[in-house]
Write a structure and sequence with these properties.
Blueprint lengths: L2 H14 L20 H15 L5 H6 L3 H19 L10
Helix pairs in contact: 1-2, 1-4
């Protein structure tokens, strides 16, 4: 399993543990299914602890679908890899 597949599988697993999201299509909005913002943050924490990748909470709240989260975390992983691959470069990652 490559890194992107691992990211997708982890996000799916964490989201499916939420009773309101079990069986929900990946392109449907969490909030439309009654998930609270607190539950979204709890999922974010679980995902970030498992993957060691951070994404801004505001980005996740603004794109509250499983498919959007997969895309955001893959982008975050790639950004982190680019920074690590550029020794001697000073930059801030938001």
């Amino acid at each position: 399993m490559d890194r992107n597949e691992q990211i997708a599988a982890t996000i799916r697993e964490v989201c499916r543990r939420e009773e309101l999201l079990a069986g929900m299509p990946e392109d449907e909005d969490f909030f439309d299914h009654g998930v609270s913002s607190l539950a979204v943050i709890q999922m974010q924490i679980r995902i970030e602890e498992a993957l060691k990748i951070t994404v801004a909470t505001s980005d996740l709240m603004g794109q509250p679908t499983i498919s959007d989260w997969i895309r955001l975390y893959i982008r975050g992983a790639n950004a982190s890899t680019e920074v690590e691959a550029s020794p001697g470069t000073a930059c801030a990652v938001a």
